[in-house]
Amino acid sequence: MTTKEKIIDEALTLFSTKGYQGTSVKNIADAVGIKDSSLYKHYKSKKEIFDTIVLEMSMRMEGMSRGLGLPGEENMEKAAFGYGQLTAEGLWELSKNIYLYYLRDEFAARFRRMLTIEQFRDREIYEVYRKIFMEDSITYQTQLFGEMIRQSIFIEANPAAMAVNFYAPVYFLLNKYDQEWGREDEALAELKQHVEEFGRIYLKRDRDA
Amino acid sequence: MTTKEKIIDEALTLFSTKGYQGTSVKNIADAVGIKDSSLYKHYKSKKEIFDTIVLEMSMRMEGMSRGLGLPGEENMEKAAFGYGQLTAEGLWELSKNIYLYYLRDEFAARFRRMLTIEQFRDREIYEVYRKIFMEDSITYQTQLFGEMIRQSIFIEANPAAMAVNFYAPVYFLLNKYDQEWGREDEALAELKQHVEEFGRIYLKRDRDA
DNA sequence: GTCTATATGCGGATAGAC
DNA sequence: GTCTATCCGCATATAGAC
User: Fold this and answer.
1) Keywords assigned by UniProt (chains A, B) (predicted)?
2) What span, in angstroms and rounded, lies between the C-alpha atoms of B165 and B160?
3) Using CA atoms, how far apart are residues B76 and B74, in angstroms rounded to an integer?
4) Nearest nucleotide by C1' from B22 CA?
């Protein structure tokens, strides 16, 4: 890791716990292991460090999302078909992946916390937070569930309401267990309970059984 | 409002947007209309202002919660019976009250935002946030729904899973529309869609109809 | 209980040597 | 690309007059 990358990495850690204002350039420099003045050879200001984080992490989030079952707007039929094979278990895999990614991925988790802290002081930051953790997720899942209804994997229902029913608890548990590092089993048990309830309600196979 | 109260009020507004570190004592004093040095006649430090807010608001939140259908652990049977009378419509009233209270109440909304910002830097703050906006709500609703199942208002189901299904979307929408002041109708429409779905799934009367 | 004045330190940022 | 030295403004907080 270059010094320039290490600065971003350490700054993200500090911003995600102490906040932007609560973190000094010296804090970052200390964490990196250089003097604060040296840091200005890599970034021209503290704000440039923050902006770089937002830009890079936004891109990284989109890239990673595709990898775990959030493939953007295309291939919805294929994605739905893929999940169709797995029924209740597939639903659990999907939830667990999304949940553990946002909770534990070394970048996603810190980035989410940072945006959570900073969303109120700047409209642009808020838009980024809202897009990634609210709109994109719900939009994608609404489309996915709509397709899964069409393929008779799920019973007839309102896909938008389903998406909220599915994602909101993931979001809630993410926030609830965010700082409970020793209680991951408990978190996953709660998540599983939720997903099973969701399957009981909407999955056709479960219903027929 | 006394100067001492006004300081708390303005500080809460500032802390809930710019954060504790992002707010200076001068910012608060300016908002109140006094010099920063005068402020120290009322509170001995900036931290004392913050701590006073947390203490007072925690108490106020508990008091207000009781007023809108979150009455603590006693009277659960009575509360459940009360909601039983109203069925689907009562469910909607309950949700709307909780939602609009947390979203719009002039103290609750600012306090929630402040805790959201500050939760990561201090374990104690996090505990307060978690208790009020996660544990208490879920605990109460789990008990309420359990009682409502016993009274045959709801179908047989897992009350804890129901509570997550019910409250998580409220929490999610609260965060989603927190800064969308012009889109309250949209927010309520989404909430209503969720509550109706919840009613369709769990309410006995809806099922039988 | 408000003001002016002030102490003291830390914040972000730059200059220039190596 | 790292360091030392330095600038300057703003931060929290206090002293003391009115």
Assistant:
1) DNA-binding
2) 9
3) 5
4) D11
Cα A46 from chain centroid (whole Å): 25
A163 φ, ψ (degrees, to nearest 5): -60, -45
Per-residue tokens: B33: 């209309």
Distance CA A77, CA A64 (A): 20
What's the whole-number average pLDDT of chain A?
Answer: 90
Reported as a single tens digit per residue, the pLDDT across B96-121 is 988 998 898 889 999 999 999 999 99
Q: What is the pLDDT of residue B205?
A: 75
Spanning CA of B37 to C1' of C4, the rounded length in angstroms is: 10
Asked if A120 and B16 come within 8 Å (Cβ–Cβ), the reply is yes
* pLDDT at residue number A140: 87
Classify the C-alpha dihedral B149-B154-B156-B162 as positive or negative. Answer: negative
Share above pLDDT 70 across residues of chain A, in percent, rounded to a whole number: 87
Residue A23 pLDDT: 98
- Tell me the count of A-B CB pairs closer than 8 A: 113
Question: Which single residue is written with the structure tokens 């770089």?
Answer: A52
Q: What are phi and psi of A154, to 5 degrees?
A: -105, 160
Instruction: Read off φ and ψ for residue A203, nearest 5 degrees.
Output: -75, 130
- Helical ranges in chain A per DSSP H: 3-18, 25-32, 36-39, 46-67, 76-104, 108-118, 123-130, 136-150, 159-176, 184-202, 204-208
Q: Are A201 and A90 in contact (CB under 8 A)?
A: no
The CB-based long-range contact list for B48-57 (8 Å cut-off, 24+ gap) reads B49/B7, B49/B8, B49/B11, B50/B11, B50/B15, B50/B20, B52/B8, B53/B8, B53/B11, B53/B12, B53/B15, B53/B111, B53/B114, B54/B125, B54/B128, B56/B8, B57/B12, B57/B107, B57/B111
- Is 80 exceeded by the pLDDT of residue A43? yes
Is the pLDDT assigned to residue B66 strictly greater than 90?
A: no
**If you average pLDDT over residues B147-158, what whole number do you get?**
92
Which positions of strand C lie within 7 Å of protein CB atoms?
1-6, 10-16
- What stretches of chain B show up as alpha helix (H) in DSSP? 3-18, 25-32, 36-39, 46-67, 76-104, 108-118, 123-130, 136-150, 159-176, 184-202, 204-208
Please state the pTM of the whole predicted model: 0.95
Distance CA A146, CA A137 (A): 14
Minimum mean pLDDT range among A19-23, A91-95, B84-88: B84-88
- pLDDT for A66 equals 63
